[in-house]
Amino acid sequence: MAGDVRHFLDISDFSKAELRQVLDRSQAMKAARKGQPKGMVDQGAPLKGRALAMIFQQPSTRTRVSFEVAMRQLGGEVLVISANDMQLGRGETIADTARVLSRYVDAIMIRAKRHDHLMELAEHATIPVINGLTNKSHPCQVMADVMTFEEHRGQVDKHAIAWVGDGNNVATSWIHAMTRLGGELRLGCPSELPPDAQAVDWARAHGGKVKVTTSAEEAVKDAACVIADVWVSMHDTDAAARHNMLKPYQVNQTLMRQARPDALFMHCLPAHRGEEVTAEVMDGPQSVVFDEAENRLHIQKSILLRCLGAE
Hints:
Blueprint: H1 16-33, E1 51-56, H2 62-73, E2 77-82, H3 94-104, E3 107-111, H4 115-124, E4 129-133, H5 139-153, E5 160-164, H6 169-181, E6 184-188, H7 197-205, E7 209-213, H8 216-220, E8 225-228, H9 239-246, H10 253-256, E9 264-267, H11 279-282, H12 289-307
Parallel strand pairs: 1-2, 1-3, 3-4, 5-6, 5-8, 6-7, 8-9
Helix pairs in contact: 1-5, 1-12, 2-12, 3-4, 5-6, 5-12, 6-7
């Protein structure tokens, strides 16, 4: 990360201690708000007078709402901008957009179609840039996932986590997280949709316990958590082929029985019941998907405080 600007671009950019600080603060802030009205500003309003610009090149529910509510609960202001509402959508360069927004607001969160758009924005911004999602990674989501797991089962470094399905952007951020925080990650993916090879190589070079297999059953065996994601993402155009490839990777009760008896089921949402996960698992007692969704709020607050130096 260049200079003293505190971007939040990828989990791999941070040390275990730095990630642990974000996680610990998010837990403390969640506990402090227990039983309080949702609209109440956090004590001290630590981001009072600060403004966050949120750029969306893709539609969003959880990212938009969690960041907007997080910023408001911290006492700050939010500007929500569709890429089509900006000169960016009419040919202005990303570099110039970064320079202009840096004069107006205190931080930028972007949900980008392409990872290189995020990196170019961060290169030219003089304020923190936060990765709200790209085609390569989804670090805020996975930080909330880790927070959720640890609420239920303790620190992740003592467990095996299983990813089942497309080796996509969320899987990449899980590779980064488990390498930095410890524990074992097993990815069961079809050979046509493997996890990012550079991320796997990075993990192994940094001592990560990352296993890649084409068997969902092998990935899930005795795991403490089973994670799935949609079979077809917004940028995918081969829906029929993906459904055929990923049918053997559906998370159902038969597959969950291969994991530990107390294994959690996680999904970043939105989910398609009957495709990547059955309704029985999604709505069953092992599912913590709505805890994950809630924890996006608390993780975003902790990330915002870190990026804006208000820790």
